[in-house]
Amino acid sequence: xxxxxxxxxxxxxxxxxxxxxxxxxxxxxxxxxxxxxxxxxx
Length: 42
Prior knowledge:
By secondary structure, the chain is mainly β. It has strands at about 1-10, 15-25. The protein is rod-shaped and about 35 Å long. The two termini are about 20 Å apart.
């Protein structure tokens, strides 16, 4: 699953928050187990 989102500053000063979330359609998503984020053990 792939998501698209924008960020805006949090009004309480806790850091940025995601807004305007959208699920992206398409077959360009990597196979199971592959993603764009590094895992904790890398």
